[in-house]
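Sat 14:20. Reprocessing the chain from the morning session after the first attempt stalled halfway. Input below, unchanged.
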Amino acid sequence: MTREHPITAVYLQACVIAVLVNGMSAQHSVSTGSSPVISCFIEGWSVLRPVGAGKFSLDDIDPSLCTHLVFLFAGLDDDRSTISLEAEYDTEGAFRQLVAIKARVPSLHVTVAIGGWTEGSEGFSKMASSQRTRKTFIDSVLENLKRYKLDGLDIFWQNPAQKIQKGRPEDKRNYVTLVKELKEALRPEGFSLTVAVMSLKSVIDDGYDLPGLAEHVDFMYLLTYDYHGKWERITGLNAPLYPRSGETGLARTNNVNFTVSYALEMGVPAEKIILGLALFGRTFFLADSRNHRVGAAALEGDPSSGDGLLSYLEICKRIESEGIVWSIAREQEQRAPYIYGGTEWIGYDDSLSLTEKIDLAKRLRLRGVSAFAISTDDFKGECLAGKYPLLRTINAEMRDYSIELNQPQRPVVVACFYQSWSVYRESLGKFQISDIDPSLCTHIIFSFVGLDESNLTIVDLDPYYVQRGAYDELRQLRTLNPNIVITVAVGGYDEGSKKFSRMVATAENRKKFISSVLDFLRRTLLDGIDLAWMDPTFREGKPEDRENFALLVQELSEAFAPPGYHLGVTVSGRSSTLRQGYDLSVIGKAADVVHILVYNFHGSWEDQTGHTSPLFPSDEERVQSNDAATFNMDSALRAVLAGGVPTHKIAVSLPLFSNTFILRDNTQNYYGAPTLKTGFQGPYTKVIGYVGYNEICEMQLEQDRRQQQNQYVVRGWTIDWHEQHRVPYMYKDDKWAGFDNVTTIEERVRLALSHGVTGISVWSVDTDDFRGVCGTGKYPLLSAINRVLKENKIPDKQRPDMVPSSTTERNVPTMPRPVSGCSVAATSNVSVAVLSCGSLNDDPAQCDAGDTVPPQTVVLATCWETADMTVRCHDDGFWKPFIQEDGWLEKKMAILCQPYYLNSEVCGRRTRYASTGAVLNTQDFDRPRNRWPWVASLLRDDAHACTATVITPVYLLTAAHCVTRTPETSTEAIETTRLKVEVGAAHSRLKVKEIRLHPSYQTGRSPRNDIALVELQTPLVYSAELYPACVADAQLNARVDAVAFNRSFGKPTFEFEVVGMKVSPECRAQVNECPTLQLSESQFCAEGRGGGSVLLVGGSSGGPFLQNLVNESVTEAWTVSGVTSSSSRTVDCSVPVFTNVHLFSDWLKDSVLEFMSKLTLP
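Finished this time. C-alpha cells:
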C-alpha cells in the first residue's frame, strides 16, 4: 500500500527538507552487517490529519524500533526531470525533531522515497527514456542528498509499463538502466539505493526486470500487500500469506508466499529482499450480512474513506468503541484475521499474522522487513495495548534473527533411503543396488546397520549381503555421479531403543561406538552415517536418552570434522516423540542433515482407517484435546522448525509406500471407518499392513477404469479423496489404503519449499515404480521430487487429476464447529482493548509486566497460532502476562467473549480469590458463595431443582432436561411462570422470559445435546458479587483441573459444595457398566481430582464444569467447559456426565447475538 493523501506533496517536501538537514555524518554506509533490517515507512501526510483522527507527529517516532526510516514521498518535476520539493511546512520545526532523533540513535539510516501511487508512471517514464533526462535526475538526487545529509534514495516507481498509470512498454528496460546509472553515481558517495516492487504477478511480469534491478540496488522492498480491496466485488484479505484451496489461475498468485518465492525464483538474492508488512486493513460492504466469509459477495464502495483503507489504529478503535457487535474471525489457510459487523467487513493484519509472515522471512533468510506505515500503527497506545503494538511485535520477532550475507545458495538434497532387504524380494519387486539411478539422488542411505549386543559398536545386520559386495556396488555409483554421498543408517525400528540407550548412557560407551564408526568408514570407504535411533526414551528407553543422544550427536560431529565425514540424524515426526526424545536445537547445530519422518501417523495398529501421512489436520482433529491435530506433515515440519533446526539442514522424509487396513464392515469404507486392526500385504514387500507405491500403482493399472459418481473405479478399486488432509485413498471389498501419487508428492515438495526447506528424503527408493511397470516411466515419484525442486515453485493446492472433485467423507457424522474469534459489544462503563502477544516461545511482546490498563477493562489477546485468549487485569490495574508452561498445545484455548451490558465486569474471576499459591485448594472451595458469583439456582415451584451459570446479563446456561416439563421424558420446555432464578449474594429471585432448549435435544438414558439457555425478563446489573463465567470456544483441556458444584434437591436455601474434578478417559468404562448412565458423542465424564468416584446429587444437574484456562498464578478465567447432564443416581454408579459446551458454541453465540440485535442501550 503506497498511496498518499492528495495533500501529500505539501507535507512531504517539508518532511524531506527536515530529514535532509539532520546532522548525519558524512559517511552514508548501507547496513551490511548480520543484523536484520526493520525499515519504518512514515506517511508524510499523516501529520496533516485532524487531531483525534490519527494525527501523527515526528515526536511520535520511536527510533529504537527501526533500523531505517523512509519518508514517503518526494515528487518528480515532469519538465525538469528533477526531484520536486515544496516548502509549505514548518521545515525548521521538522529539522529540530529529526536532528534530535538522529542524535539519540546515530546508527539510524534515514532516506527519502520518491514516487508512490499518486505520482504514477508518466513522469518516471519520460525521465527514464533518455540518457540526458536520466543524468539530470541523477544530478538532482546527488545535490539533494548532499545538501540535506540524507543516507540514500528509495524509488517507488509503481506500475511501470502499465497504461493505467500512463506507462510505456519500454519502461521495464529503461528502469534497469536508470537504476544502474544511479548506483554508479551514488556508490562513491556512500549513499544507499533501494527500489520498491508491487506485489501482483502481472505487474511484476510487465514492469519489473527483477534480476536486473537486484543487481544494482542495496535492497529491494517487496510491497506484499494490496492483493485485494474495494476494486473487487468479493471480500478479500489485504495480505494473505498463502492461497485459499478454492482459488485458481492468477488468483493463486495473490499472496505473500507466492510473491517472495517468485522473486527468489527470478534470481533476486534473499539477502537483498525486504518483506513488506501492512499495518493497515482493507474495507468492504457485504452484499448479504449473513455471508461474511472470505470471498463473500461485496458491494462497490466501502464503509470508510474513499480508498477503502483503515489503519490498524482505526480498526482497533472500532472494535473498542463503536456500537456494532464486531465478530473476529481468522482465515485458516491464508493465515490472517478479519472482522465483520452488520454489512461492514475489514481484512487486516494483527500480531499473529505478522509473526507468521516474519517467520516466512526468517525461514527464507531474507534481509529484513518493512512496516507500512508506523503512522498507521497505534502509535499513541489509544487501544490500551501500549504504543506501537504491531511494530513492537515485529521487533520482538526479529530480535534474535541474524543473517550471513553473500552466502552461497545451498544445493538441494534428495536423500534416497534403500531397504537392503529388498534384494531378496521376488519377481518385479526384486531390487538391486544397480537399479538405483544416482542422477535422481544426492545421497544414498543404506538401511540398516545396527549395534552389537555386547560391545555396543557398529555391526552389519546382513553380513551375507555385505560379503557379496554390497558396499562395493554402492561405491560403483560414484562413477555415474561423483558427487553422490553414500552413507549407512544405524538403527531402524527393529533395533529398538534398549541397546542405544545403553550405548549413549556413558562417555566411555559413546567413545567406543564412535571409534568403531570411524574404523567402519575407513574400512568401507563410505562417506558417513545417518543415526536412525527410532523413538529415544520410548520402547525400553530411558528419560535421560534425550540428553544423552544429543551428546552422542555432538561428539560424533566433532569426531567427523577432521576427516570430513557426513552425519545425518533421523527424527520422528510424532509430536510426543519429538518433545520427549530429541533435543532438536543441539541436533540441528551438530548434524549435517536432519531427516524428519512425516509418515506412520496412522496405520493398521489403529482401529480406524487413516492415511500414513496427511498433509494438514482436519477440522475434527483441530478440536480434539489430544495430539491428533499434529499427526500431519505440515505440523511435524513446523515442530522441527520451532525446535531450532535450521531450514537448510532439514530433509523432509516422504513415504513412497502405503499403510493398509482391513475394514470391519465393507459398507463402511470412508476415511476414519472402523477396522480390524490389521492390514493387507503386497505381492513383493509381503509385510502385513504395508505396500510399496510400485504395488499400489500396479493395482491401479488402467484396465477397467471408469468414473462412478464422484469417485474413480480402477480394476475394482474405488479411488477417493480427503480434501482437508489433501490425500487420496482407495478401497475394494474389505481392503483400504491411503496412498500418494505424482500430484500429491509434488504438493508435498512444494509445501516443504513454502517453509524454506529444500531437502527431501524418501522411504524408500526401492518402493517407487523403479521398473516403469505402470506406464509413467521409471521412478515417477522420485522424478517428480527432482522436477519440483528444480523448479522451486510454491505450493499449489490444485486437486490431483486422478481423484474426484469433491470431498467424499460420506456418512460420517460431523461435530458442531466452534466459532472463530469473539463478539464484543462495548458499553458505557466498559472498554475493550485488543492486545497482540508474542510467539510460542516468548513472553507476550506487547504485554509487558507493569504496563497499566484501566480497571474494568476487557482485554482480548491473540496468542499462539489461531487461538484467541482472554486475559484479565488485576484490581491494581497492572497487566501481568500469561506464562507458558507445559507446552502451547495443552494451553491453546479460546474464550467466546459474550457481549457485555451496562456495568459489565470481566468474566470468570471470583470475587475473593487467593492472590498467592495454587487456586485449587480445599479451603478455597468453601463458602462464601460469592467466590463463584456466576452460579445460580433454578427453582421449580419455589424449590431448588437444578443449577445454572450466568454467562450474559440476560442468559443463564443449564441442562435442557432441567427446564422441561418432565425432566427425564419431555422435550417441551416448562412454563416460565413455574421457573425462577436465584442469583447473587442477596439471593435475588428473578422471573424468566423464555427457555431455549437446544433444537436437537433428545431425552433418555443418554440425553443428547443436553443444553439450554434461560432468558431473564430483566437484565442483570453486574457488581462485585455478580458477574459471568467465561464460555469455552476451545476443545476440552483434559490437563487442566476443574471444579463442579454439588447441590441438594428441593431445599429452599441456596447451598452448594464445590468439588475438585478432572477429566478422565478411564471413567468411560465405569459409565458403560452403569445401567442408568451412558455417554453420547457430545458428552464426557470426570472423576475426583485425587482419582476415584464423585457423587453429584440430583440438584447438581445443569451446573457448570469449570476450568481455569488462564495461568492461576497470574489471574483467573473460570470457563464453562461442561454442563452437568446425567447426575449419579446410585452410590455404585457415582460417575458424573457432562455436556461438552464448546461443541455448542455456534448455537450459543447465535442466541446471544440475536438478543443483542434487539437490545437498545441507554
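The domain at 8-223 is CATH 3.20.20.80 (TIM Barrel).
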